[in-house]
Amino acid sequence: xxxxxxxxxxxxxxxxxxxxxxxxxxxxxxxxxxxxxxxxxxxxxxxxxxxxxxxxxxxxxxxxxxxxxxxxxxxxxxxxxxxxxxxxxxxxxxxxxxxxxxxxxxxxxxxxxxxxxxxxxxxxxxxxxxxxxxxxxxxxxxxxxxxxxxxxxxxxxxxxxxxxxxxxxxxxxxxxxxxxxxxxxxxxxxxxxxxxxxxxxxxxxx
Length: 206
Prior knowledge:
It is a single chain. By secondary structure, the protein is α/β, with parallel strands linked by helices. It has one domain: 3-Layer(aba) Sandwich (Rossmann fold), CATH 3.40.50.150. Helices cover about 40% and strands about 25% of the residues. The protein has a seven-stranded mixed beta sheet with strand order 3-2-1-4-5-7-6, sandwiched between helices. The radius of gyration is 16 Å and the shape is globular.
């Protein structure tokens, strides 16, 4: 299921929450630059639907951790999707920027997402969260991202990471120091992008 198909398949209430979240992003981004100015006219396609793509790739879990949440993409989007399906999954959003963390808390409150917790810490300083799912979007090259993911992922957990056209090179570079099982899924919003689903992440022995 693509991100667009997932949105079309949701309840009216979930669709309204996604629209309300889109409005919040546009309202706040003028002050704290949540998204690039060039993407504001296409925020739904470029950011909301792009983030919805994470949802159908994730296994059922009771704890989802989103790294470098920024504007809540994908953290708050998948929390909205979960709420719409009646899931009791809790969401932990880790964001080091205090202003963005304030936005995340405000948005979670206004969108009635009580299972969302925002940690205003650097990812590497936050206590390990042991998430069944760990997600990240546009955060860092894979070799730099995997130590952060491994810190917060449960032993049997799944990581879902958005990557651009350099994905193949990043995977090859990361394999020099890490072992993992990986599947790649083409993005439905960007022909040069993909979503990577990783399991059994561990450092390679010297």
